[in-house]
Amino acid sequence: MKMPGPALASDWPALARAARRILDQRRTLDPQQVEKGRLTAADATARLRIATALVAQWDSIAAGRPPYDAETAWIVSNGTEGTYPHELRTDLNAAADRARTLADRHGEDADAAHFAEAVAALAWHARPRDHISHILDVAHANAAWRASRTEGRAAA
Question: 61: closest CA among 143, 145, 147, 129?
Answer without folding.
Answer: 143
